[in-house]
Amino acid sequence: MEKNRKLNSLRMQEKEARRNLIIDAAERIFAEKPFDRVSVRDIAREAGISHALIYRHFPDQQSLFVEAFLRGAEKIIRFLGELIDEKKTVSIEKVTERFISYLIENDSYFRMMTHFMLDGSLGAGLIERLNTAERALLDQLDRLFIRLKAKGDVRMLSHAYFAAMNGVLITFRNYPGRSGGEVKRHMIRIGKIIAQRFRV
Amino acid sequence: MEKNRKLNSLRMQEKEARRNLIIDAAERIFAEKPFDRVSVRDIAREAGISHALIYRHFPDQQSLFVEAFLRGAEKIIRFLGELIDEKKTVSIEKVTERFISYLIENDSYFRMMTHFMLDGSLGAGLIERLNTAERALLDQLDRLFIRLKAKGDVRMLSHAYFAAMNGVLITFRNYPGRSGGEVKRHMIRIGKIIAQRFRV
DNA sequence: TGTACATCAGTGAACGCGCGTTCACTGATGTAC
DNA sequence: TGTACATCAGTGAACGCGCGTTCACTGATGTAC
User: Fold this and answer.
1) Which of A69, A78, A193, B79 could form a disulfide with B160 if both were Cys (CB 3.0 to 4.6 A apart)?
2) Which residues contact A35 (CB under 8 A, 6 or more apart)?
């Protein structure tokens, strides 16, 4: 009986581990090519398993994608949190610069986020999970604005700042005839213009 | 000879007219369902023609989509221009409210715009056409900021404002558990928070 | 006026592809007696 | 210790779909003589 439970738990751990290996593979693929061209077969190949096996661990493709995205989102949120704590005095311009840079460097997650935002066909459960992540990110921004002694409704400031940064990252992404470096510099420049106005 | 030219020109006009009918049909379909689920066959059905015929007027699907989008973009730009001219004194909050409302009501064009912004695989010619439209829109915003006697680099302000509005429209689109009206109100609220900060 | 030919808008059927997902099966491991 | 059975991770092949695009063809209209 006791032994039984132990074995059972081991099997569960094994299953969990395999599940994580699949998400790991997904993360690697997402870093490689635009998210909307990633297929279940790609991820299976990267993980070294049959693509049919993925369906023993995830009900469908969308769930796996959301799962992988949430991993990246957690990293982004952790990064932002540390950024805000970093120094005694935070400058919103500095945070903006680092935040934009980070999102550019982790582009596939940013793309996935906007994709999920635009996609109307997500299941309610998945939407809820995505929103939990979004709220966690907004919590960090709240902390930033509180540290900056912002007046008024702090949460609404976080909403506004977050939305504006998203806009910057989407709008200038395909700036024609500009190199990656130039695009990045422009995004940071525009991001700072907005950020300054949140300083009041 | 003379007659020849006339006939030729009539045939050209006819061709142009057919082309426009196809784009009209595309516009209607785009208003009906999310743009990424629109197929060449849908548009052909709406236009009452064989889907093969579309390829006698457009080299490929993407070109047709861009063409249809540019029509909508022109309308948006015209709307924005009139909005700015409307009264002796413009208020950026009012412009923001009307602009956001308009984009919500013409959602499919907004969706297409973000799609094109995120899509890395556009041909150079199409990108150029899209950017011409974007520049025309920024020109209108320039006029707004000039009328508001903004200081500093007006064009950069237009960039910042435009990007921020895009962000608002994307970020809160799927606000969970909120009705369409509530979402709209929230977008306008956040939009105004940002807009106020551009008033300085 | 009649005839042979050219042009070209328009079509239905088919091609070919890649995809998400499911199926029937294998084979290793554990379990009961 | 041996044997029959159950479980379940894992698989390759196949299903079925919808799509963008192309093809071979039709038929109406215009043109040349």
Assistant:
1) A193
2) A65, A108, A111, A112, A115
Chain A contact for B155 (CB, 8 A cutoff): no
Instruction: State in Å, rounded, how far the first CA of chain A is from the last one.
Output: 66
Torsion of CA A54, A58, A60, A66, to 10 degrees: -110
**How far, in Å, CA of B165 to CA of A171, rounded?**
10
pLDDT tens, B10-38? 778 888 999 999 999 999 999 998 888 99
Handedness of CA A44, A47, A49, A55 (dihedral sign): negative
Of the candidates B122, B164, B145, B71, the residue with the CA atom closest to the CA atom of residue A192: B164
| A68 contacts: CB under 8 Å, gap ≥ 6 | A23, A26, A27, A30
Binning chain B into helix, strand and coil, the percentages to the nearest 5 are: 80, 0, 20
pLDDT band at A1 (very low <50, low <70, confident <90, very high): very low
For residue B172, which amino acid is it? F
Which of A197, A198, A200 is the best mutation test for B, with the most CBs of B within 10 A?
Answer: A197
Q: How many Å does it take to go from CA B14 to C1' C33?
A: 87
| Distance of alpha carbon A80 from alpha carbon A141, whole angstroms | 8
In the 8-state DSSP scheme, what is residue B55?
A: G
B71 Rama class: left (phi>0) / alpha (psi -120 to 50) / beta: alpha
pLDDT per position as a tens digit, A39-93 = 999 999 999 999 999 999 999 999 999 999 999 999 999 999 999 998 878 899 9
